[in-house]
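Same chain as my last thread, 258 residues:
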Amino acid sequence: MKLFFWNVLFLFSSVCAEIVQIKNIDECKDLIKPEMLLVFDIDNTIMEPVQLLGSDQWFSYQIEENIKRGMSKQEGVMLALGQWVSIQNKTKVKPVEISTAQFIENLQKGGWKVMGLTTRGLEMATKTLEQLKSIGIDFAQAAPFSQEIIFEHIQGAVYRGGILFSTGTNKGPLLFQFFKQTGYQPKKIFFVDDKEKYLRDVENHCAERQIPFVGIRYGFLDEKVKNLRPEVASEQWKCFGNLISDVEAEAHLKPSSP
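reply #2:
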């Protein structure tokens, strides 16, 4: 009897929650099932800046460097965030993979509910929609809710254009606050993010409510993130008035011929 109980418990757990590692977005195809709400992170999952400066990995590096220079964590984050926002308002972006935009569009046309979920905040909402439009992505096309929502008790959080902007807060609580305010009740959740901590956060909230969950730890940019070259970004920051490419920054760093 005990063996039967644990077998059933294991089966229930495996059905309810799963995190899968993938390298390419097309690998999602075999994992998406009927009745799933499809949720996608934005930075380093859907899009990235055309140069290293302003990338998600650059932002994380800047925070660490600020703290090393004696700033508190909050001070370090705020300084890096101010620089990051300035760059986002100037930079062009590109899809993480060439096939990303078509993949999202096919899901939308295929009848799935699709939305974005990002740590970006209210101040970046309009710009983010513009950036996504520039690479052919519009999350409003098949979103689970069409109207804009301002979350009164979560400063800076907003739902706009099919994207939930969490302004740096944990993604799980805000996602379920979104469900509560809209009355939308997903039967299953499929979430793609390059950071496992956010997948675990949403997974835990799904488990509390016994909602089947599939988390996708997306690693297409893992090597690029791992091999961050801060000196390249530093050179680009010097040329912020006229953003230069990684190749141009590399050329600046090469010693001049005698």
